[in-house]
């Protein structure tokens, strides 16, 4: 059984984990998620990946791919305005200054994800969440999703019913099995541009959603996803 779930509104990938990402019209979704997504991460002398949960200043850095469809040639934009290849020493120097310790970017053989390769949110959930900020529209970038779906129907959180279902995207696109809701953290409180903190979002999540917003999915079949693709939810 299945039914229309909506259409793809946005496609995002994040070349460097915890950096601002890039919005794209289309991307290939493979077994490990969107091609190039979270392929790089920041590390320090301890050898573990640093994330915005522990170091929110990472959110002030951005990354994109010079070769968009192939997801090659990651370039970093630093808060000071530099635009350089990810492995340029000047990037590591500015990272170290921002974090107050030696840090640099490494490239991983596989993507560095928290729980599952693909993260989805819906526009209806985003619209509903505006009530937590006195009607101010919430910047979708706060939630760092790969795919934003403009959902059908009146349910403000339709993704909650997708857990266990398969989302079929487009006529021959990827098939994504939704495996769990996404538990949020303090990263949602930071403005993506100014890094100013606004606790109203996280307070609303705790009050109304038990800190869950969006869903994680694994990839059952690879394929291209593009803005405007239809999305169908197929349930057992």
Describe this structure in words.
By secondary structure, this protein is mainly β. The chain folds into two domains: 2-18 and 21-31 and 113-234, PK beta-barrel domain-like (M1 Pyruvate Kinase, Domain 3, Beta Barrel), CATH 2.40.33.20; 40-107, no CATH class. It contains three helices and 17 strands. The protein starts with a strand and ends with a strand.
Search tags:
single chain, 236 residues, mainly beta, 2 domains, 17 strands, 39% strand
Spatial strand sequence of the major β-sheet? 1-12-11-15-14-13-17
Mean pLDDT: 93
Strands, count: 17
- The percent of residues in helical segments reads 10-25%
Q: pLDDT under 50 segments (min length 5)?
A: none
Query: What letter string, H or E per element, gives the SSE order?
Result: EEEEEEEEEHEEHEEEHEEE
How many helices in DSSP terms? Answer: 3
For the record, what CATH class of the largest domain applies? Mainly Beta
CATH architecture of the largest domain: Beta Barrel
Radius of gyration: 18 Å
What is the number of independent domains? 2
The largest β sheet comes out as:
7 strands, mixed, barrel
Structural class based on helices, strands and sheet pairing:
mainly beta
Shape: globular
Compact overview of the structure:
By secondary structure, this protein is mainly β.
């Amino acid at each position: 059984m299945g039914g229309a779930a909506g259409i793809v509104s946005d496609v995002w990938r994040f070349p460097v984990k915890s950096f601002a990402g890039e919005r794209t019209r289309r991307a290939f979704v493979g077994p490990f998620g969107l091609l190039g997504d979270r392929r790089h991460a920041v590390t320090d002398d301890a050898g573990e990946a640093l994330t915005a949960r522990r170091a929110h200043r990472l959110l002030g850095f951005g990354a994109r791919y010079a070769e968009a469809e192939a997801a090659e040639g990651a370039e970093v934009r630093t808060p000071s305005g530099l635009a350089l290849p990810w492995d340029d020493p000047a990037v590591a120097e500015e990272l170290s200054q921002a974090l107050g310790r030696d840090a640099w970017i490494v490239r991983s053989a596989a993507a560095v994800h928290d729980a599952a390769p693909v993260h989805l949110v819906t526009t209806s959930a985003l619209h509903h969440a505006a009530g937590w900020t006195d009607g101010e529209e919430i910047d979708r970038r706060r939630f760092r999703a790969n795919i934003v779906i403009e959902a059908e129907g009146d349910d403000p959180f339709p993704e909650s019913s997708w857990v266990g279902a398969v989302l079929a995207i487009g006529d021959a696109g990827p098939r994504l099995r939704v495996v769990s809701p996404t538990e949020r953290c303090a990263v949602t409180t930071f403005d993506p541009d100014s890094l100013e903190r606004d606790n109203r979002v996280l307070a609303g999540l705790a009050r109304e959603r038990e800190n869950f917003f969006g869903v994680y999915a694994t990839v059952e079949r690879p394929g291209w996803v593009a803005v405007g693709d239809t999305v169908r939810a197929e349930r057992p």
